[in-house]
Amino acid sequence: MSALQAPLASDFGLGGEFRGWATAPPADGPSQHGDLLLNALPAANGLIGWVCVEDGTPGVWRPWGAIA
Fold it and tell me: 41: number of CA atoms within 13 Å, CB side?
């Protein structure tokens, strides 16, 4: 998971885990539905992070949380 920085493993109860901080969703490695990544470089009009919506390698990741 090349984009992943400072990984953590704490279950949020969403079926996945909090994976840490990243600058983009992962391009490789396994992911589970509900996994979360926080944006390591948040900015106005950006995103809070990404959530995995479908298991896979790397899974299907979608942005979440617009920053006003």
Answer: 5
Residue-wise pLDDT for 2-14, tens only, equals 454 444 444 444 5
Cα(18)–Cα(5) distance, rounded to whole angstroms? Answer: 12
State if pTM tops 0.90. no
Strand extents, DSSP E, 1-46: 4-5, 10-11, 17-22, 36-39
Sign (positive/negative) of CA torsion 6, 16, 28, 67? negative
Instruction: Report the alpha-carbon angle 38-36-7, nearest 5.
Output: 70
